[in-house]
Amino acid sequence: MAVRQTVAWCYRGGSISTEPRINDRIRVPEVRLVGPSGEQVGIVPLAKALELAQEYDLDLVEVAANARPPVCKLMDYGKFKYESAMKAREARKNQAHTVIKEMKLRPKIDPHDYDTKKGHVVRFLKQGDKVKITIMFRGREQSRPELGYRLLQRLATDVEDLGFIESNPKQDGRNMIMVLGPHKKKTEAMAEAREAQAARKAEAPTTESRRDRAAGSDAIEADEAPEAVAEAPAEEPAEAEA
Q1: Contact 190, 149 (CB under 8 A)
Q2: Listed residue (8, 10, 63, 12) closest to 35, CA to CA
Q3: What is the pTM of this model?
């Protein structure tokens, strides 16, 4: 009964904090202290460690609570938390998620439709994604599975510079399925996409300046044009006198 009451009390207490203890929250008689630059100070009383933290205008952070005695370090805890959050954010940004795209075709597909579908497959592979190709058979087409097999082999050959056959064609009910994998990793494709975007942004000001210069030259020509028109009628009276 006592065990059950203890467990219930733990649940009522809420979630356990995962942040390290700092400064006055540290409740041990002595700590193994690490200086601001990573130097080993040694085992010192907690009061002495807190005194040093105040002298350096830093925080005393418990970095290894399970050690005996616990290991504490002098650091700017606010700056440390900010840098850790930025590193985690950058890691999530660069994290590659495997995505499987799907493209469906018919055994007797029109050449124009085939080129369109192939263009989508090329785009997916360039992005570093896998592509699941599904050939859908209807009616009597189910008795001609070789049509679907040849179509899948043709598509794999057309995009062999960008991808490879990860899963060979196999019959699945009325469908035939093949999976293409990209030669490029997802992270490499993402890096190239970011570089291309940065290059486009760098070229944008150059394009705008060219447009501005072209607009300025058009304006100058427009200002000079009325003078030529105004001078033309001045020759007519001279012809009349002659």
Answers
A1: no
A2: 63
A3: 0.46
